[in-house]
Every structure is written in structure tokens, then in C-alpha cells.
Amino acid sequence: MVRAVASATVNRYAASTSPSTAHGWEFRRLTAPSRLFGANGLRTGPDGRIYVAQVTGSQISALDVTTGALDTVSATGGAIVAPDDVAFDDRGNLYATEVMDGRVSVRETTGITRVVRDDIPSANGITFDRGRLFVGECREGGRLLEFDLAGGPPRVILDDVPSPNAMEVGPDGLLYFPVMGANEIWRIHPDGGDVQVVATGLGVPDSVKFGADGCIVSTQVATGQVLRVDPRTGTHTVLAQLSPGLDNCTIVGSGADARLYVSNFTGEITEVGPDGATRTTLPGALNWPLDLTVGADGRLYVADGTYLYRVDDGSLTTVGMLFSPGYPGFIRGVAAGPAGEFVVATSGGQIARYRPTSGESDFLATGFDQLYGIAPALGGFAFVEQGAGRVLLVDESGTVSVIAAGLDTAVGVTTSSDGGVLVAESGAGRVVRVTPSGTETVVDGLERPQGVAVADSTLFITDAGDKSVVAVDLVTGMRCSIATGLAIGPPPGVVPKPLRGMPPFSGPQGPFAGITVGPDGTIYLSCDGDGSVAALRRVERS
């Protein structure tokens, strides 16, 4: 017997969901679903809509700021992978930089998508001006390029730039671009020549656009400020103070009707008025989410890659983010340590003790290939190295040992009440127990298990293939699905392309529908499909 749960509001998950629970259980969302997979590059299209690039979702959406309608232009699993910025040519064709694959692609007005070039590492900023296409590489030693639209090799305008980002040609005909590594805004003639520093001492600028008054509008990723910069003098004033994680901006309309919109990694899009007043156009939310843990304070924490959040009564409180002091990097696996401390696994291959209140991280071990789950075990922490098919153990001194090998796409790890280490082997559709001689199967016949957690003698598993949470009695082996129809993993029929990462910001990125159990027996799970966190609780039988 199952009980239907009310459907969520419109969100990014491209399939209708109707979560149901087994008798004796109830399902409740703790955070609202996301409408986007974060929000990165913004560009106002010829139709007046804002086109939003979403790196982690491999999606481009078009937002009508008047009606609030949000349409998918290029969907997850489609031809464009990890788009970071977009631009339009004079004929209305959409060009996108694919930062993780080092590509630039064009989606023509006919709907056909083709790769323009695939040899542009960390392709990011892009703009068109009077029939000329300019692209920047957001990496240390990056280049500014002009593409040959006839198919020839690109022309290097400037090289050895410390992480240039979203650029624009100004009213004076010069190419303006933020330089994140220098914390400055530079300009250069599109034909080349000497570079000039326009503004310095900023808040890590990552985009520039121009207002009708000829001044630069620039987002600051580290401080969350939107700056107005005079290109003649370099003087800058704060137009608006928003949350850190700003990525890009665009202007809709012209003259007195012009409106400025700003994106955030969280997927939030904010309208900023001329007087600095702000209005939320799209709310921010979770990007993935990934692993979960209950802290020493009894509160729920969720790893969301560039953010670590605390869940507070339906809202998300930022504990740390990529540009916070001491943030260890893109967090995928998380386990609670002593009060105020977490042990985390990053996509950069690091195991770290992270203390957000003091802004410090100590790295216990580094140099691993695609880390996923982590859990207290055997006097230290067991963690999954998916790229090498291993489970390892790190102790307090940083000594690392291999405790299991030969695993097929391992994801989550947990410990049983007797101290045994259990691992979700997603590629093999099973959960295994680590033994001195290797591994033994605990439960098989699953589709794509990811998160695992144990309470007393019951093992709970998120199955991204079956869109369910499975409970297994570790004593009897009996199992049942306690929740089904969940927005876990991609929608049916969608096969996302691999996300290869953005060094130095992150290594390869991948899904992880985490699960954990609170002290009162509440089960918390990451619904990474729609970007929400949910809870499963036992209820009195009627």
C-alpha cells in the first residue's frame, strides 16, 4: 500500500513526479526544488528573453522576465555540454562556450547544433561585436581569441592572462574583460596591441557589461557586489550588495526601460535597479545536491559542490562557499566531525578537515581520482575513490591504506552497527561489505545505488536508477522500497554527458544522491534531479 505525496511546483526536472511512500512512512521536502541547475552566463537574446547557461546541468534556458516563463533551449543530455557563457550573432544564432570540454558550439536558428572548435581549454567568456566573435579561456595563462568564422584557426589577441572571464566590447570599440587572477578589469583593442588596466582592487570580477551611460557593470564573485565602473578613470562604486557567488549580468531593454539582471551560482537571478534596489526574479536553490551529514549540533548539512549549507526550517544557510576563506574546494562527500568541523572529500581529489567558523582546512590526504562518499570507520575515515575503483582508509595522522579494490563505479560509503564498511557499487547494482579478503555482496539487483546509510540494523539506499529509497534488514536480508517516484538522478530517457571538471576550481563532477539518518531516525536524502532535500519519517500506523 502506498500513499501519494503532492507534486512539487514547476522545477527543472523534465518529468512529472509523484513521490509515494510505503505504509508507515511519510515524505516531506525540506527545501524547495530548483528551477535551474545554477545560473552562470547570461545574455539578452534577440527576442528580449534572458538566456541562462548552466554548467552543471548542461542546459541553456530562456527566461521571460515579464511573465516569468522559463523555457529549455538546450537540454541536459543534448549536444551542448557544460555551457558557461552564451552570445548571439547578427542572424540570431546562439554560440556557447563549453568550459569542461574546451569547446565552442553554435545552435543555429534552425535548431541544429554543431561544434565550432574543440581545442579551447576552459573556454568561458564569449561575445559578438559587429560580426566578430571573441572567446576567452578562464584559466591561468589563458588566451583571448578571435575566431575565424570561415573555419580557420583562431587569432590570439592576448595570451598568458590569469583567468579572464565574461567580456564585452565597449562604446569606444575596445574589448573589456575581467581578470579574476589579478582582481582587475583590463581592456585591449580587438586587433591587438598593449593591454590597459581599467580598474583594480575589486572583489574578484567575473563579468563586464556596459550600461546606457557608457559605464561598466561588473559582478564580483567573492564579495557579491555589483559594481559600476567608470572606464575612463577606473573609479568604482557599489551598485548593489548581493550574496557571494555572482557569475554574470545582462541588460534587458534600452534607455529608460533598461533593466539589469545578475546571476548567481545558486541559480538566483536578481534584478538590480538604478538606485541599487533589488528584486528576486528567480530564487536561488541547490545545484545538485550531493552528500548529507548530521552535524554534532544535530542539524542537517548538505554538500552542494561550490557550497556547504545548513538546512534550517526549509531555508538554506551558507556555511562556506568556493570563495570563502579556507574552503577546501568542490565538496562532494561530507561527514560530521567534532563540533564545528567536517571531514570532506573534494572533486579535486583531496580529503580535508574543514572548520568553516575559523575559515581553515587541513588536508589529510591528496592526489586521488574522483572522490565520492566518506564516513567514519575503523578509527579513521573510509572514503571512495571512484576513478580507481577503490575504498581507502585515512587515519588521524594522514596515513592512507586501501581496504577494497576492483569496484565498479562506487559512490556512497557507510558503516554498519558492528563497524563493518558498506559501499554502494553503482555500476554493479549492488551494495557490498568490505572484508579482509575483498568484498562480499550485501544486497544486489539494484539499478544504480548511490547513497547508503545505516540505522540500527537497517540499511537505507538511494537508487538513482529506480528513483527510490530501499530499506534492507541486515539481519534477515528482507528489503522493500519505502519511497518511490523520487526526483533522483536524471529524468527517464535522459543520459547526461560526462562533466570533466574545471581545474583549478573542480575536478570531474558527477551525481551523488546522498542519504543520512538523524538521531531521531529521520532519513534525509538528496533529490539531485530537482535540486531539493527531503525527509522520510515513520508515522503511526492507522
TrEMBL record:
Residue stretches making up the SMP-30/Gluconolactonase/LRE-like region domain: 34-263
Pfam families: SGL (PF08450)
Domain of life according to the entry: Bacteria
Entry protein name: SMP-30/gluconolactonase/LRE family protein
